[in-house]
Amino acid sequence: MMKYVHTNLIAKDWRKLSDFYKTVFGCKPIGPQRDLRGQWLGDMTGIKDAHIEGEHLLLPGVSDNGPTLEIFSYPEIIDSDKAVNACGFAHIAFEVDDIENIMNLVAQEGGSVLGQVVSNDYGDFGIGTFVYVKDPEGNLIELQRWER
């Protein structure tokens, strides 16, 4: 068996970031909040005295079995710049009905807009409209709308 389970975001303030995704994208918390520590966690992460806190959020448009967005915080985190063209995971994407409204909500909730709203005709697939935004901690999010 193989199943995609979750995407993890490490947050400076997991509660604040989790609230952002709940408010802007309608994500729902599932399962208990996590407060994990112990030798097993240090062995798994390679971080001495590792301690993580956070929760899993059910993403909009998926079943109750996930996948989820896992938002965790460590007491000590490494800060890094994130860019659309950086190597590794770049962004998560949400299809929305009203890009302008969600862009405004992102900004209202502490995020920011990265680029301009653009549209492109993909032939039989439809016309896609896109923009990149950042959550309050700088993680990249692609907003998209399709006209078919």
UniProtKB/TrEMBL annotation:
Residues 3-146 form the VOC domain. InterPro entries: Glyas_Bleomycin-R_OHBP_Dase, Glyas_Fos-R_dOase_dom, VOC_core. PROSITE patterns: VOC (PS51819). It comes from the Bacteria. SUPFAM superfamilies: Glyoxalase/Bleomycin resistance protein/Dihydroxybiphenyl dioxygenase. Coiled coil: none annotated. This is VOC family protein. It comes from Ohessyouella blattaphilus.
